[in-house]
Amino acid sequence: MNKLSPMGLQPPGRHKTVVIADDSVVVRGLFARWLGESGQFHLVAVAGDGETAVAHAGRFKPDVMVLDLDMPGVDGATALPQILKESPHTGVLLATTLNERNTRIALECMTKGAMDVVSKPDSRSGLTLSLDFRSEFLLKLGNVAQARLRPGALPFEHEVDFAPAAPTSLRQFVSTVPRYLVIGASTGGPRAVARVLFDIGDALHDLTTVVVQHMPPVFTASFAEQIASYIGIPAREPFDGERLVRGTIYIAPGGRHLGIDRRLGHITAAIGDGPPVRFCRPAVDVLFNDAARHLGSAALGLVLTGMGSDGTEGAGALRRAGAAVIAQDEQSSTIWGMPGSVVRAQQASAVIPLDDIGPAIRSLVKTGQPL
Prior knowledge:
Blueprint: E1 16-21, H1 25-38, E2 41-47, H2 50-60, E3 64-67, H3 76-86, E4 91-96, H4 100-111, E5 116-119, H5 124-129, H6 131-146, E6 180-185, H7 189-200, E7 208-213, H8 217-231, E8 235-236, E9 248-251, E10 257-263, E11 266-272, H9 284-294, E12 299-303, H10 312-320, E13 324-328, H11 338-344, E14 350-352, H12 354-367
Parallel strand pairs: 1-2, 1-3, 3-4, 4-5, 6-7, 6-12, 7-9, 8-9, 12-13, 13-14
Antiparallel strand pairs: 10-11
Helix pairs in contact: 2-3, 4-8, 7-8, 7-12, 9-10, 10-11
């Protein structure tokens, strides 16, 4: 029989190792109990402040760090780059109460290496009694544990720790210069979306860009503001029936589907509260299917890092409508779930590393010739 570790859990074996950094004793104890009951994780240490979290990252090199933003002394946002410096392949799951301030900080953290965020309920009873929160916490923890985190700080840094594969040419798949760029992303997506849009640069003025990023409702408006600030291009959540115009980036509102419609000869946003598609709302498949129906070969699809298979069905619809679809390659993806599913379904026109996606799209839009 295995002996219990000092933390009270079974030795790790094949389980993913976890460090919990939170200033609340109650939260640390609750998360530790959930990890033990799940049978999937091994808790190696806890921390009540950011300085201790950094030290534990260096000592234990955990698979996952659960990191609160609000901690005394060195807070979570300050500790994050030091954690990733000490243990570059540790996946960081932010677990914090998401007020307006923390939402902005969490998004910034996700562009600097944090992989996902889970919103802690405001009250202690909500924290301890919510089965939905427990399920979401364990699901996201599992996703982060499976991910292949790539070190790197800012979303626009060009230094990476791997040699990207040569991109597959789009030439044989593109019949017309696209006027619409439709993007789907999930885990790891905020950093990837920002990087691609930054690299496309002023060619975005010639595109109408529509993005479905799997995010809770509280995040998407702030994500749009962040994108606008980084890229220098207008970005916002559209309203239902809004005419979609070139030179603007439209972000799907969290918790609602964003599709595309054609009204009175104009392409418009279609916001809906229909049931989740492949467990997602907003869903990439909704956007891609509508783009295939109303845009055809004028669209260019892009599937970036994320868990699951959302976007595969829609990618097939885009291809049948004459549009090209780019999938991010496995090596540069945080999680090669969504793009990998598109590739396995043989619906990817090209499989391209993150570093090369923006330049390829920029070249296509500006010169009519993809790289």
